[in-house]
């Protein structure tokens, strides 16, 4: 028996607020449908399971429903059964009764499982929706109660403790389930969603994440470094796709099915020991001449220290972005001005960070305070909690000192 495992499709996700990226997620789903139908026609694919987060929100727009209905109708007409569980994006964890998956179930396009099972010959598919970490006993007990006598496949949307992900998700700890109680269930295979890395395997449990169909995290982009007038590729874009489960009396064998991404997604990193505006502009111009392709999405990360005699105000992300005319570009400036002894460093940020910085400045009115807050935001973004806390402590200590000096004066 062949079963396809998909997850984290996130229909309706508008990455970076771009309509183009919303369409990319739609296209990724419909491309997967094409591949599933091909596998049905050529290999006898029977069933598709979707391990949560089919939608990006529990209230998808009509246009997103139309995309879902279009793809699922083609699967139904091809004779493919689609079984879906809810992820944390599909519905409220506390009150999951009303959600868009229930609508698709009522239309006969999917079979929605939540603490329920379906038997396919000698294979039992057990579906359980997302639970919070402190509710994991409920999940484990449900899976245990629903086990059958043949091959058991549990379809869940959780982070399983010990899964060696590369890119941290911001809510991993919120939706975690411990490894040991799952291992003791005697379930043959866990079809898992929530971590977006394609083909991520748990080292001790037979559990595999199919990952998202589209790139979710900028750290998954194709990556280049620019130095000494040359661009050097350091990483390919991460693979995306779904899994094909070959299920027999001997168990579950897992194969990866990779799908191409919808557009070129690139990060370019430049670091300066002494950044000068004219040099930075010339370097960005060179990068644009090599990478400014229509449809591409480029994140340009410019970091380092500002050369003596210049201010952080001499670097303008908007002007650098204008050097590109075809690609969508986000210029992220993270430059620090050299300061004298006893002074606090001042940093300049660009891109979406610049929008946040300007909003903070309008409310706080203090460049140094804004720069410190921006640094905390950036450290949280890359999951450097210790660094964020340290920066916050320094900020509090610094401003406490300022307040005390003013009181003394």
Descriptive keywords:
Purple Acid Phosphatase, chain A, domain 2; 409 residues; alpha/beta; 2 domains; 20 strands; 6-stranded mixed beta sheet
Summarize the structure.
The protein has helices at residues 19-43, 62-77, 100-106, 136-146, 179-183, 277-291, 317-321, 352-364, 367-381, 385-408; strands spanning 2-6, 47-51, 81-85, 111-112, 116-120, 123-127, 151-157, 159-160, 176-177, 189-193, 200-201, 207-209, 222-227, 230-235, 240-248, 251-259, 265-275, 297-306, 328-337, 346-349. With 409 residues, it is of the alpha/beta class. It is elongated and about 75 Å long.
Describe this structure in words.
A six-stranded mixed β-sheet has the order 4-3-2-1-15-16. It has helices at residues 19-43, 62-77, 100-106, 136-146, 179-183, 277-291, 317-321, 352-364, 367-381, 385-408; strands at residues 2-6, 47-51, 81-85, 111-112, 116-120, 123-127, 151-157, 159-160, 176-177, 189-193, 200-201, 207-209, 222-227, 230-235, 240-248, 251-259, 265-275, 297-306, 328-337, 346-349. The mean pLDDT is 89. A hairpin with a 2-residue loop joins strand 13 and strand 14. With 409 residues, the protein is of the alpha/beta class. 33% of the residues lie in helices and 28% in strands. The chain folds into two domains: 2-217 and 238-259, Metallo-dependent phosphatases (Purple Acid Phosphatase, chain A, domain 2); 265-408, no CATH class. Helix 1 packs parallel to helix 2 (62-77) and helix 9 (367-381) packs antiparallel against helix 10. It is built from ten helices and 20 strands.
């Amino acid at each position: 028996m062949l079963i396809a495992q998909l997850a984290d499709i996130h229909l309706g996700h508008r990455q970076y607020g771009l309509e183009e990226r919303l369409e990319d997620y739609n296209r990724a789903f419909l491309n997967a449908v094409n591949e599933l139908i091909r596998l049905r026609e050529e290999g006898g694919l029977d069933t598709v399971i979707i391990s949560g987060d089919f939608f990006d929100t529990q209230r998808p727009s009509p246009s997103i429903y139309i995309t879902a209905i279009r793809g699922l109708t083609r699967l139904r007409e091809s004779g493919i059964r689609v079984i879906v569980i809810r992820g944390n994006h599909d519905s409220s964890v506390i009150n999951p009764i009303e959600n868009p998956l229930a609508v698709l179930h009522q239309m006969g396009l999917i079979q929605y499982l939540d603490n329920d099972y379906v038997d396919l010959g000698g294979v039992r598919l057990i579906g359980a929706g997302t639970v919070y970490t402190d509710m994991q006993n409920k999940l484990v007990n449900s899976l245990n109660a629903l086990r059958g006598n043949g091959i058991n496949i549990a379809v869940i949307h959780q982070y399983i403790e010990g899964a060696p992900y590369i890119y941290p998700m911001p809510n991993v700890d919120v939706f975690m389930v411990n490894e040991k109680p799952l291992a003791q269930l005697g379930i043959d295979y866990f079809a898992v969603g929530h971590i977006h890395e394609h083909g991520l395997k748990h080292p001790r449990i037979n559990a595999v994440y199919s990952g998202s169909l589209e790139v979710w995290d900028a750290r998954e982009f194709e990556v280049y470094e620019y130095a000494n007038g040359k661009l050097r590729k350091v990483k390919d874009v991460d693979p995306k796709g779904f899994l094909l489960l070959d299920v027999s009396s001997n168990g579950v064998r897992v194969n990866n099915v990779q799908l191409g991404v919808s557009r070129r997604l690139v990060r370019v990193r430049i670091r300066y020991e002494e950044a000068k505006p004219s040099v930075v502009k010339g370097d960005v111009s060179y990068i644009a001449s090599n990478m400014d392709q229509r449809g591409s999405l480029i994140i340009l990360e410019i970091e380092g220290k500002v050369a003596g005699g210049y201010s952080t105000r001499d670097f303008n992300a908007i002007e650098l972005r204008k050097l590109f005319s075809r690609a969508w570009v986000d210029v992220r400036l993270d430059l620090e001005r050299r300061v004298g002894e006893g002074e606090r460093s001042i940093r300049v940020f660009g891109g979406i960070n610049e929008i946040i910085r300007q909003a903070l400045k309008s409310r706080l009115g203090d460049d140094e305070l804004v720069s410190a807050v921006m640094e905390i935001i950036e450290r949280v973004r890359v999951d450097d909690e210790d660094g964020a806390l340290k920066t916050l402590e320094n900020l509090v200590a610094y401003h406490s000192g300022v307040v005390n000096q003013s009181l003394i004066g």
